[in-house]
């Protein structure tokens, strides 16, 4: 079973959005997906609660803020949404079970600074070389100076930028109904599906740890 941890110590960067979309993508591929939430706000769990019953099922993963139990029986993939300020015992618990760490990042100075420090912490962790890591740009506006600076910053990290997701209300509207890009007519979210495709391919490729430089 593959365990995907979505993590960034800064709040408001889109962790829950990304965790739910990843879960929806994996479910659309016929996988048995379970979604856990370490965040006190339980945004991903609330999203699961309102997800329509007729859609591809995503199982709840009952985990506490300080302990990650075994995921739902029969699951092929597990996704973990994490809280802001993830460090110490909770970071240890998340990395202990992780095969993949996806780090959402917005193209703002404060987000980039916080993420740089977080990646430094990951480099020093004993499991840093045993997990595959990738960055996802969130709420990215094309053809802006902020995007240029973001791309320059990412180029210094030694961690691949898998894709960027645009700043759109589609994610907000979908989340409000327990939906993902993969639950609606493709024509309605064509551009967003195209942006997500590289991440989907990366997530489902054979697991291989990438050492942090």
Automatic annotation (TrEMBL):
InterPro entries: CobQ/CobB/MinD/ParA_Nub-bd_dom (IPR002586), DNA_Partitioning_ATPase (IPR050678), P-loop_NTPase (IPR027417)
Taxonomy, superkingdom: Bacteria
CobQ/CobB/MinD/ParA nucleotide binding domain location: 4-180
Organism: Scleromatobacter humisilvae
PANTHER family documented for this protein: COBQ_COBB_MIND_PARA NUCLEOTIDE BINDING DOMAIN-CONTAINING PROTEIN, P-LOOP CONTAINING NUCLEOSIDE TRIPHOSPHATE HYDROLASE
The protein's name: ParA family protein
SUPFAM superfamilies per UniProt: P-loop containing nucleoside triphosphate hydrolases
């Amino acid at each position: 079973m593959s365990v995907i941890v979505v993590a960034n110590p800064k709040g408001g960067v889109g962790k829950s959005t990304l965790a739910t979309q990843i879960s929806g993508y994996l479910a659309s591929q016929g996988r048995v997906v379970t979604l856990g939430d370490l965040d006190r706000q339980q945004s991903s769990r609330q999203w699961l609660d309102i997800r329509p019953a007729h859609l591809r099922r995503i199982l709840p993963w009952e985990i506490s803020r300080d302990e990650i139990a075994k995921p739902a029986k029969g699951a092929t993939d597990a996704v973990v949404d994490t809280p802001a300020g993830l460090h110490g015992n909770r970071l240890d618990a998340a990395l202990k079970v992780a095969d993949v760490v996806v780090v959402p990042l917005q193209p703002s100075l404060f987000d980039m600074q916080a993420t740089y420090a977080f990646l430094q912490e990951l480099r020093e962790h004993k499991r840093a070389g045993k997990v595959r890591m990738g960055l996802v740009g969130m709420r990215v506006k094309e053809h802006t100076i902020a995007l240029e600076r973001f791309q320059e910053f990412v180029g210094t990290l030694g961690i691949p930028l898998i894709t960027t997701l645009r700043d759109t209300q589609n994610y907000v509207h979908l989340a409000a109904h327990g939906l993902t890009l993969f639950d609606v007519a493709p024509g309605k979210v064509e551009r967003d599906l195209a942006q997500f495709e590289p991440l989907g391919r990366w997530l489902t490729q054979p697991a291989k740890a990438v050492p942090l430089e």
